[in-house]
Amino acid sequence: MKKQFNHPDYKSSKLQQSIIEVLESSTLWSMATVNENGASHINTAYFCYDDEFNFYFLTSPNAVHSLNLLKNSSVAVSVFNTNQPWGSGLMQGVQIFGTAKIIDSTNEVSAFNEYGKRFSGFLNWMKSLNDEEKSKIESKFYCLTPTSLKLFDEKNFGEETLISIKL
Fold first, then answer.
1. Distance between alpha carbon 157 and the CA centroid of its chain, in Å?
2. In order of start, what are the domains of the chain with their CATH numbers?
3. CA distance linking residue 78 with residue 120, whole number of Å
């Protein structure tokens, strides 16, 4: 990953290693959006990311969270392994805050390739479709551009240590 994570108390390389470990521990995230009236909505989606720390997810543009993003691009996601025993002192997770929008056609190939790297079943499925079947796929790629994150990693940074990082 090319992204540098700046924090006065921790080395960027250690933060990067920890963040990648958390991101690789789960292929799903919980994503919160807000509608135009301020009501929150949460959904679960598969995600991938690139070396520049851009995140991609595939979803229907007619889903509630997608419609929310049209009016308010603010988004928060949480990534963690759900098999962490309470009280183990080894809990890890990351919360990522930023903006998300549907990807334009010029960046779609990058998102497709990153998604395919993480989810080989997706690539196999897409290869099995003919052009007509592909044209009927409603889902589109979206990109989350992070502005900040909170890292919780008891294993690498100690119990109850929450590290806030502006990007």
1. 22
2. 12-166 (2.30.110.10)
3. 23
Global pTM reads 0.92
**H-helix segments, the chain:** 12-24, 64-71, 105-118, 120-128, 131-135, 154-157
- At CB < 8 A and 24+ separation, what contacts does 57-63 make? 57/29, 57/31, 57/141, 57/142, 57/144, 58/115, 58/122, 58/139, 58/140, 58/141, 58/142, 59/139, 59/140, 59/142, 60/138, 60/139, 60/140, 61/102, 61/138, 61/139, 61/140, 62/138
Q: Amino acid letter at 156?
A: N
- Residue 86 pLDDT: 83
* Chain segment 6-15, per-residue pLDDT in tens: 899 999 999 9
Structure-token pair, residue 114 = 């990153």
58 — phi, psi (to 5°)? -115, 125
134 Cα distance to chain centroid: 25
Q: Tell me the residue type at 103.
A: I
